[in-house]
């Protein structure tokens, strides 16, 4: 069944599961992420952070016509971590273009429409997260969260330890320009429509209720 935006607004959770809980027959065949591109204020510092600090391989550098740059690092599994540097880029606005970590509270870490709130990079072995957290914390990035156990079984969305209900185990940290980043390991439990599609999508009208 072809749905309009108006149809989706009025869908029940059960209809949402039935309509979108499986790929559409004419789906665009996306094969993972090619690259995520941020904007940095200092390309040398950014290369140091990712290539020296985290150990990612620098793979490609591009000079832009306006004097800017576009650099790529190997993000694993065919993906790249990419950055632009623009000579006259505007200053960042915490709480708008990126998370305002200084004033963030549980449940309040919003950013502007169209912004990238955070990017989570997959880690195959959850047991390595603690060593990676220590490595990143030693870089002095200013903020590194505790190890978090994401779950649907608590009101906060977090548990106190890894168990059969854990969906992700992760920690958050900042990049050189305040990019909100996450290293995460997904548990072996696969997502299913019955267990994991639980809510109707909201619209701007819902914020006025």
Describe this structure in words.
The chain is α+β, with helices and mostly antiparallel strands and 209 residues long. It has helices at residues 5-9, 13-20, 43-53, 129-137, 193-196, and strands spanning 35-40, 58-63, 69-76, 79-85, 119-122, 148-151, 158-159, 166-174, 180-186. The chain has two domains: 32-90, 2,3-Dihydroxybiphenyl 1,2-Dioxygenase, domain 1 (Roll); 99-193, Signal recognition particle alu RNA binding heterodimer, srp9/1 (2-Layer Sandwich). It is globular. The model has no long low-confidence stretch (mean pLDDT 89).
Features of the shown structure:
single chain; about 210 residues; alpha+beta; 2,3-Dihydroxybiphenyl 1,2-Dioxygenase, domain 1; Signal recognition particle alu RNA binding heterodimer, srp9/1; 2 domains; five-stranded mixed sheet; four-stranded mixed sheet; globular
Mean pLDDT over the residues: 89
Strand order of the largest sheet: 5-9-8-6-7
DSSP helix count?
A: 5
The string of secondary-structure elements, in order, is HHEHEEEEHEEEEH
Residues in β-strands, percent: 25-35%
- Strands, count: 9
Oligomer: single chain
What's the Cα radius of gyration?
19 Å
The separation of the N and C termini measures: 30 Å
Summarize the structure.
The protein has helices spanning 5-9, 13-20, 43-53, 129-137, 193-196; strands at 35-40, 58-63, 69-76, 79-85, 119-122, 148-151, 158-159, 166-174, 180-186. The chain has 209 residues and is of the alpha+beta class.
Q: What's the arrangement of secondary structure elements?
A:
Layout: H1 5-9, H2 13-20, E1 35-40, H3 43-53, E2 58-63, E3 69-76, E4 79-85, E5 119-122, H4 129-137, E6 148-151, E7 158-159, E8 166-174, E9 180-186, H5 193-196
């Amino acid at each position: 069944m072809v749905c309009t935006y108006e149809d989706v607004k009025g869908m029940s959770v059960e209809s949402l599961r039935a309509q979108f809980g499986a790929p559409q027959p004419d789906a665009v065949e996306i094969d993972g992420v090619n690259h995520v591109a941020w904007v940095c204020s200092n390309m040398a510092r950014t290369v140091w952070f990712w290539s020296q600090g985290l150990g990612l391989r620098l793979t490609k550098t591009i000079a832009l016509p306006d004097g800017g740059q576009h650099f790529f690092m190997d993000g694993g599994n065919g993906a790249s971590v990419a950055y632009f540097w623009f000579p006259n880029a505007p200053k960042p606005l915490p709480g708008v273009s990126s998370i305002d970590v200084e004033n963030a509270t549980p449940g309040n870490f919003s950013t502007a429409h169209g912004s990238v709130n955070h990017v989570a990079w997959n880690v195959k072995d959850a047991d390595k997260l603690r060593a990676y957290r220590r490595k990143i914390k030693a870089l002095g990035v200013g903020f590194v969260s505790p190890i978090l156990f994401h779950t649907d079984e608590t009101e906060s969305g977090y548990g106190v330890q890894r168990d059969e209900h854990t969906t992700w185990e992760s920690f958050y940290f900042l990049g050189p320009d305040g990019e909100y980043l996450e290293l995460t390991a997904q548990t072996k439990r696969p997502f299913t429509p019955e267990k994991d599609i639980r809510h109707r999508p909201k619209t701007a009208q819902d914020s006025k209720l």
